[in-house]
Amino acid sequence: MSLREPWMANMLRDRKLCVVLLTVSGIIAAAHALGISLWRCPFHVCTSLPCPGCGMTRGIVAILQGHWHEAWGHHPFAIVFLAGWLVFLGVTMSPERHRNTAIERIAAVERATGITLVVLFLFVVYGLTRTVVACFDASNAGGLGKLRHPTSTQHHL
């Protein structure tokens, strides 16, 4: 697989996959906005450490509620993932002719810039850095089992 492979465009070509991803993520975010937790991160449950995606749902919900500063505190990539979700929604719901045109344009941008890989790389680097910092946090005298999530005491994606 090439570094400039159009990953997002390739996913968008599978309409059924997009519908499943949009539906599941939409239900999780809507439930969270209503105060219902449908997801517990297995990594966080096992280690008490934040995974690269910890805080994403809270960040997206905060953006949708107009709380930009709060969203940044939950996860700085929330706006990027919300924008990607909206692209997925728009392309998935578009008529076939417009959908195919949009997918080809997205693929061209991905091939020219490698933007999807860059964003995913930065996302993982941020997440791993946050996890390593949490491991060595001075307020964590009790080890991994005593760590608290960086933005809340209860973890939601």
Short account of what is shown:
The protein is 65% helix and 0% strand.
Distinctive features:
157 residues, mainly alpha, 65% helix, disordered C terminus
**Looking at the chains present, what oligomeric state does this protein adopt?**
single chain
- In the predicted model, the low-confidence regions spanning at least 5 consecutive residues are 141-157
The number of helical runs is: 8
Could you estimate the helical fraction of the residues in percent?
Answer: 55-70%
End-to-end span in angstroms? 29 Å
Beta strand count: 0
User: Helix/strand-derived class?
Assistant: mainly alpha
> Biggest sheet, in brief?
none
Kindly provide the radius of gyration, computed on alpha-carbon positions and rounded to a whole number of angstroms: 17 Å
Give helix and strand order, one letter per element, not per position. Answer: HHHHHHHH
Residues in β-strands, percent: under 5%
What's the domain count?
1
Based on Cα principal axes, name the global outline. globular
Taking all residues together, what is the mean pLDDT?
86
SSE layout:
Layout: H1 7-12, H2 15-33, H3 42-47, H4 56-64, H5 68-74, H6 78-93, H7 96-113, H8 115-135
Helix pairs in contact: 2-4, 2-6, 4-5, 4-6, 6-7
Can you describe what's shown?
This protein is mainly α. It has one domain (about 5-145). It is about 65% helix and about 0% strand. It contains eight helices and no strands. The protein has helices at about 5-10, 15-35, 40-45, 55-65, 70-75, 80-95, 95-115, 115-135. It is globular. Mean pLDDT is about 85; it is low at about 140-155.
